[in-house]
Amino acid sequence: MAVSGLPPYDDANIFARILQGEIPAKKVYEDAWAFAFHDINPQAPVHVLVIPKGKYVSFADFTASASAEEIAGFMRAVGKVAKDLGLEASGYRLLLNMGEHSGQEVPHLHVHLFGGRPLGRMLSSGS
Ligand code: 5GP
After folding, report:
1. Which of 33, 79, 81, 107 is most exposed, with minimal Cβ within 10 Å?
2. What is the pLDDT of residue 78?
3. 3-state secondary structure of 27
4. Tens-digit pLDDT profile for residues 44-97
């Protein structure tokens, strides 16, 4: 088990393969720290995923192991993507799933960026 309770980083995970250019993605932004692309199954008019370039399975892994420079670079990239997409005036939501109870599906840290309409309450009731 890695630090997050998830298995260790898997180089074959889908987002690693997108980063390596093995699987196509609709790219929105890229810099030294981050890569952003449209979610394949959008839940809002704008639904973009922002991922760090480093190999981190989860938020727990990232915050425990990434350098301050990586963390700052990644967070600045998330803000820049939202700004570049024109979402600052209307607002947006960031969502980050971590581990089993969150429903995290892909074991490479990713931030969901939603916008383009009023987004309603924060959580569904779940079941
Ligand atoms: P999670 O549930 O792990 O927080 O979110 C994973 C997200 O990745 C989902 O919203 C899902 O639609 C998206 N996703 C899964 N596979 C692909 C893919 O191959 N390409 C893209 N662009 N998004 C994907």
Report:
1. 79
2. 98
3. strand
4. 999 999 999 999 999 999 999 999 999 999 999 999 999 999 999 999 999 999
**Looking at ligand 1, which residue's alpha carbon is closest to its atom 15?**
40
Phi then psi dihedrals of residue 87, to 5 deg: -95, -5
> Under CATH, which architecture does the 21-115 domain have?
2-Layer Sandwich (3.30)
Known catalytic membership, residue 110: yes
Q: Are 7 and 107 a contacting pair, CB within 8 Å?
A: yes
**Nearest one of 30, 81, 82 to 53, comparing CA atoms:** 30
Reported as a pLDDT band with limits 50, 70 and 90, residue 123 is confident
CA distance 52 to 78: 10
* C-alpha 39 – ligand 1 centre gap (Å): 6
Give the predicted TM-score (pTM) of the model.
0.95
Please tell me the residue having the least CA distance from ligand 1 atom 20: 40
Q: Which atom of ligand 1 is nearest to the CA of 106?
A: 3
Output the ligand 1 site: residues, CB below 6 A.
14, 23, 25, 37-41, 49, 97, 103-106
